[in-house]
C-alpha cells in the first residue's frame, strides 16, 4: 500500500495565487498602451534675459532705412575722378566784365571720406563722418588773361567737412534720420583760413516706414547747396529689393539708382545723381564792375551725371568701384558775395563730357557682422 504525501493547504494556496498572478501580468503586458508624454510651454525669460517682460513672444527687430541686398556699408573711401578736355564759355552779366571762351585741359577731383559708428544700439545709431575733397582745373594757353579762370587755375578748390547722422528706429515699422553737416569750401590755405568766410552748413530730416526687410521708404526735407544756392527742397527715400537680383536705391530728386546683384561680391548700378558744389574764391587780382571792387567771389557748380557703376570685393574688408558716365553741367556761375542778394556776375557753362572714376573702400569684415 502506497503512502500519499499531501502539501499543506497554505502552501498549495500560495502556489495557485502565484501562477494566477503571473498569467494576469503576461496578459496585461501584452495589451498595454504607452502613454503620450505631456508637452509644456517654453519658459518665460529670466530677469537677466534681453527680452523685456512685455516683449515675450514679440520680434525684437527695429526698423531702419536699409534693405536686404544693398552693398556693404563703407567705412573709409578713396575716390579719384577725371574729365577729359572740354570747352568752357563765360558770359558777363555786368558792365565792366567781358565774355570769354577757351578749353579746359584738366578737371579732376580727389575725395577721401570716412565714417565712424559712435553708437550702434538697436534703438539709436550715431555715425560721425569726415570728408576731404579737392577739385582742380587747368585751361588752355595759360594764363588765359580772363580773371575767373586765372584765379582758379591750379589753385585747388577744397572742401573739408564733418557730419553727424542720427538714425533712430522708433519701432518695428517707423524710423527717422537727422543729419547735419558743416564744410569749409574754397581755395583757402592753412595760413589764411577764416572759418566764417568759408563755412557752409547743410542738413536733412527724413521720416520713414519699413514695410518689410526688402522695402523701406520715407519723406522729408533737405537744406543745402545741391542745386546751387542754399535752399530747402523735398526729399523722397525709396529703397526696395524686388528679388535676389534687382533693386532700387533712391533719394529723389538728388539721386536714383537701379541695382543688380550679380553675386554677394559683385554689384552693378545704373542711374543718375545731382551734385552741387559751392566755393569761396579769393581773387589774386581784384575784379571790378560798375564801380564795385571784388576781392573774392562765390562760385556755384551744379551738374547732373548719368552713371554706370561696378563694385567688387577684392578681399574680405576691401572693395573697389569703377564708374563711368556722362556729365551734364547745369551751372558754373560766379556771384558777388558782398551783396545779400548774391548777384550773378558771370554765367559760365562747362561743355557736357564723359567722365570716369576709380574708388577703393574699406567695409566691416564679415566676422564682425556675424551674430
Report on the structure:
Keywords: Signal. Residues 161-360 form the DUF6268 domain. This is DUF6268 family outer membrane beta-barrel protein. InterPro entries: DUF6268. This protein is mainly β. The chain has one domain (76-99, 109-369): Beta Barrel (Porin), CATH 2.40.160. Helices cover 10% and strands 58% of the residues. It has 4 helices and 16 strands. It has helices spanning 9-30, 147-152, 195-198, 366-369, and strands spanning 76-83, 86-92, 100-121, 124-139, 157-169, 174-186, 199-212, 215-224, 231-241, 246-252, 255-263, 266-289, 292-315, 318-336, 343-350, 353-362. The chain has a 16-stranded antiparallel beta sheet that branches.
Concise synopsis of the structure shown:
InterPro entries: DUF6268. The protein has 371 residues and is mainly beta. The protein is built from four helices and 16 strands.
How are the secondary structure elements laid out?
Layout: H1 9-30, E1 76-83, E2 86-92, E3 100-121, E4 124-139, H2 147-152, E5 157-169, E6 174-186, H3 195-198, E7 199-212, E8 215-224, E9 231-241, E10 246-252, E11 255-263, E12 266-289, E13 292-315, E14 318-336, E15 343-350, E16 353-362, H4 366-369
Antiparallel strand pairs: 1-3, 1-16, 2-3, 2-15, 3-4, 4-5, 5-6, 6-7, 7-8, 8-9, 9-10, 10-11, 11-12, 12-13, 13-14, 14-15, 14-16
Main attributes?
single chain, globular, 16-stranded antiparallel β-sheet, Porin
Amino acid at each position: 500500500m502506497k503512502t500519499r504525501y499531501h502539501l499543506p493547504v497554505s502552501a498549495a494556496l500560495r502556489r495557485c495565487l502565484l501562477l494566477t498572478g503571473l498569467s494576469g501580468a503576461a496578459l496585461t503586458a501584452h495589451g498595454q498602451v504607452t502613454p503620450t508624454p505631456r508637452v509644456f510651454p517654453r519658459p518665460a525669460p529670466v530677469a537677466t534675459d534681453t527680452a523685456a517682460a512685455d516683449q515675450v513672444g514679440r520680434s525684437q527687430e527695429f526698423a531702419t532705412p536699409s534693405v536686404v541686398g544693398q552693398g556693404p556699408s563703407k567705412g573709409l573711401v578713396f575716390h579719384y575722378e577725371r574729365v577729359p578736355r572740354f570747352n568752357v564759355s563765360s558770359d558777363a552779366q555786368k558792365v565792366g566784365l567781358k565774355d570769354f571762351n577757351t578749353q579746359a585741359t584738366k578737371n579732376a577731383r580727389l575725395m577721401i571720406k570716412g565714417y565712424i559708428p559712435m553708437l550702434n544700439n538697436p534703438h539709436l545709431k550715431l555715425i560721425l563722418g569726415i570728408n576731404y575733397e579737392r577739385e582742380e582745373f587747368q585751361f588752355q594757353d595759360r594764363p588765359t588773361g580772363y580773371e575767373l579762370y586765372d584765379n582758379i587755375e591750379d589753385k585747388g578748390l577744397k572742401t573739408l567737412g564733418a557730419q553727424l547722422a542720427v538714425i533712430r528706429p522708433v519701432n518695428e515699422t517707423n524710423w527717422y534720420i537727422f543729419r547735419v553737416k558743416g564744410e569749409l569750401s574754397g581755395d583757402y590755405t592753412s595760413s589764411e583760413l577764416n572759418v566764417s568766410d568759408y563755412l557752409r552748413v547743410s542738413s536733412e530730416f527724413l521720416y520713414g516706414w519699413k514695410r518689410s526687410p526688402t522695402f523701406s521708404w520715407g519723406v522729408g526735407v533737405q537744406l543745402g547747396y545741391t542745386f546751387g544756392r542754399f535752399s530747402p527742397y523735398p526729399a523722397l527715400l525709396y529703397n526696395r529689393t524686388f528679388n535676389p537680383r534687382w533693386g532700387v536705391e533712391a533719394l529723389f530728386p538728388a539721386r536714383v539708382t537701379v541695382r543688380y546683384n550679380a553675386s554677394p561680391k559683385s554689384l552693378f548700378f545704373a542711374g543718375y545723381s545731382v551734385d552741387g558744389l559751392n566755393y569761396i574764391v579769393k581773387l589774386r587780382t581784384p575784379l571790378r564792375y560798375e564801380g564795385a571792387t571784388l576781392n573774392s567771389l562765390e562760385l556755384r557748380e551744379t551738374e547732373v551725371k548719368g552713371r554706370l557703376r561696378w563694385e567688387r570685393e577684392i578681399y574680405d574688408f576691401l572693395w573697389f568701384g569703377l564708374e563711368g558716365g556722362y556729365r551734364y553741367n547745369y551751372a558754373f556761375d560766379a556771384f558777388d558775395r558782398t551783396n545779400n542778394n548774391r548777384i550773378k556776375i558771370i554765367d559760365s557753362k562747362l561743355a557736357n563730357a564723359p567722365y570716369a572714376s576709380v574708388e577703393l573702400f574699406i567695409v566691416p569684415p564679415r566676422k564682425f557682422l556675424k551674430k
